Amino acid sequence: MSTPDIILHRGLFTTLDRSNPAASAVAIKDGVFMAVAHDREVMKLAGPSTSIIDLKGRRVLPGLIDNHLHIIRGGLNFNMELRWDGVRSLADAMAMLRKQAAITPPPQWVRVVGGFTEHQFAERRLPTIDELNAAAPDTPVFILHLYDRALLNAAAMRAVGYGKNTPEPPGGEIVRDAKGNPTGLLLAKPNANILYATLARGPKLPFDYQVSSTRHFMRELNRFGVTGAIDAGGGFQNYPEDYAVIQKLSDEGHLTIRLAYNLFTQKPKGEKQDFLNWTSTSKYKQGTDYFRHNGAGEMLVFSAADFEDFRVTRPDMPPEMEGELEEVVRVLVQNKWPWRLHATYDETISRALDVFEKVDQDMPLDGLHWFFDHAETISDQSIDRIAALGGGIAVQHRMAYQGEYFVERYGIGAAEATPPVKKMLDKGVKVSAGTDATRVASYNPWVSLSWLVTGRTVAGLRITPQRNCLDRETALRMWTENVTWFSNEEGKKGHIEVGQFADLMVPDRDYFSCSEAEIADTTSDLTIVGGKIVYGAGDFASFDKATPPPAMPDWSPARTFGGYGAWAEKGPARAACIQAAQFCGCSNSCGVHGHDHARAWSSRIPTSDLKSFWGALGCACWAV
Which residues does the UniProt record annotate as the domain Amidohydrolase (predicted)? Predict the structure, then answer.
């Protein structure tokens, strides 16, 4: 019998395998679990070349899998985005923005692209345009808040060319002053296209920088214990051009997230042709266990997209929705492609179900793993219709970020089961969980788990009563085994079980015994994908050999702030050392600070102009 590559022992393994729910050790060989049992049994398998990790009594969970993550698009942009995810005060967020503006060279922008809500801030508000102009008078700043608005400073308005004569976009508004000049506030009413089209005008990273960016985004996800995701496509994400980076990383063996991707139509009124072209050139499930095709969506036709801006009235889908959707669904069923469909409101879901049921009459949907995304206001009747057709529902924690707006418009009573996750499960529908990151919500999976368990928004508002919340194990299954149906990978991952992929994580606290208030703050101290350690911290930092090359470009916010909650800036001294020693890729060191540019940039100095201050002292940190 061959010996394992790695053994982890003296742990508290929550396997989620109902036939073997707990273990203290696992053995891994060739990327899969070869033994899941007690220490005495597993340690007997060790050979001379087996690596052994003592878990010292720590809890171990299956790796988390996000059912709806815009990881490809997010990866292309991560290194040039300033993340306000998890930042608890507007004062801190604006300090980050000022610091980033000081080191961002022209013509680049400072971008804060979603993942946060004004309600998470102690001040309970967004910055004003005047505050943005004061913080960054010369550097363009673009801030995307959920799906509802974007804030641009004066420099950004000049960069995009919006002026008095710029026409109003369909489904959106360019807010103007009394003289008709744009103020810098863009509103989705309710269509977010004006927000995304404006963002798309900014400079993009070169290909090699996008490779670096994607690796650092995956690294950030690994830091939370994420080992897999289903990519939901996205606007302005074209196939196959924008998939070249992730394909390169897959070909070179550098993926640290298992990724199944859906194809998102890009052309209004040309959706059927998109899918005719793609079904003739792509095959469902083509790829590997790390990067594989997963069907169509989340956009199938633009006429069926009901953006969930709860600050405005629910949009009615146009009368042509059914006919256009039917044409696309018939193409997909004929080619045995599953699909996912963005649908926030039951009014949209019920109309889509009319189409699916009609197609099913002469082209059965049996065996196709199709599903709705989001489904915040889905009715009992629609849940039953989905179950009867063999479909699923992928929910995300958007209400954790937009719950206050929903309550304001529809009332706390309506919010108590929005979406009705427990009822979906009780009715036997296939249901799983994810984030819809990176724009409308954060990529932090523990915020989602906290929301499922506590029913609270990130600001602490209790919107879901206890009777509609999930217990911790059920919530965990929503993030692990349940997701595998949605990528047609049941039995291959989602458990710590013999024969399944060796994907697991060791959280920095015991998920099952920590207080509810702590769940959202969880990170991983050890993440393993396919038997390879892709992230290590704390007790397991010495095992981490997977740090990607330094973030590119050298002014990247990822170098200074890291990611969620500005962990690199606000963490212990070890984080600062990581920034200086690992994340500096500039060609020249500074005579004052060496390569520790992050320390110089983050120092408290008596000026807002870091460049001129440090330059006057002979410091070259401002120039890297």
Answer: 52-535
pTM over 0.85: yes
Contact 345, 314 (CB under 8 A): yes
pLDDT of residue 6: 98
Question: Which residue(s) pair with 12 in the sheet?
Answer: 59
Mean pLDDT of the chain: 92
H-state helical runs in 307-379: 321-334, 346-362
CA dist 47 and 4 (Å) reads 7
The pairing of strands 430-434 and 110-113 is unpaired
28-42, 342-356, 406-420, 590-604, range with the lowest pLDDT? 590-604
CB 435 within 8 A of CB 398: no
Say what the pLDDT of residue 237 is.
85
- Residue 608 confidence (pLDDT) above 60: no
Q: To which H or E segment does residue 39 belong?
A: helix 39-43
Alpha carbons 75 and 373: distance in angstroms, whole number: 21
The Cα–Cα gap between 196 and 346 comes to 25
| Identity at 114, one-letter amino acid code | G
Q: What is the pLDDT of residues 551-602, one digit of tens each?
A: 999 999 999 999 999 999 875 444 434 333 333 444 445 655 554 544 454 4
What backbone phi and psi angles, to 5 degrees, belong to 512?
-85, -15
Measuring CA to CA, which residue among 41, 511, 225 is closest to residue 7? Answer: 41
Nearest in space to 406 (alpha carbons), one of 466, 457, 348: 457
C-alpha atoms less than 13 angstroms from C-alpha of 60 in its C-beta half-sphere? 28
Whole-number Å distance between alpha carbons of 50 and 77: 39
Residues 485 and 503: their CA atoms lie apart, in Å, by 17
* CA separation for the pair 578, 574 (Å, rounded): 6
Q: CB-side exposure of 239: number of CA atoms within 13 Å? A: 23
25: enclosing H helix or E strand? strand 25-29
531-566: burial string, b at 16+ Cβ within 10 Å, e else: bbbbbbbebbeebbebebebbbbbbbbbbbbbbbbb
Q: Residue holding tokens 């060191």?
A: 589
CA distance 248 to 292: 13
